[in-house]
Amino acid sequence: MGVSEPLIQASLLGEAVEHGPAAVFVADERGRYVAVNQAACALVGYAREELLAMRVTDLVAPDEAEAPWREMVANGTQRGRSTLKRKDGSTVEFVYLAGETKVAGMPVYVSVGAAT
Asked: pTM for the full model?
């Protein structure tokens, strides 16, 4: 394997996630979004910059978000369904798989899914 192959793989994976059909939300340990892909933006109707200024509880009602968040942090992964609030005030059902990973040594929580 050449030295550049892992870099090529990372680049291809990044492009696939950015332009792929599944919505990807990445939050820090305080629930603030630190990365989102195009599908996530389209799903909820916010621009990327707007989402990156938000918290999980800005899209998911706190009473619906808190228990699954705690479970995900405790167990490492969480599978579920949430009602997301869109920018226009409408809602969309979101089925997801979420889990913890580390980026640059810091824990982040990745949620990948789609509207039902």
From this structure: 0.90
Q: Cβ neighbours of residue 13 under 8 Å, at least 6 residues apart?
A: none
CA 66 to chain centre: 16
In whole numbers, what is the pLDDT of the chain averaged over residues? 91
Assigned CATH for 5-115: 3.30.450.20
Distance between CA 13 and CA 6 in Å, rounded? Answer: 10
Map residue 19 onto helix, strand or coil. helix
CA 24, 43, 95, 62 torsion: positive or negative? positive
Cβ(85)–Cβ(65) under 8 Å?
no
Q: Is the distance from CB of 36 to CB of 26 less than 8 angstroms? A: yes
What was the pLDDT predicted at 1? 47
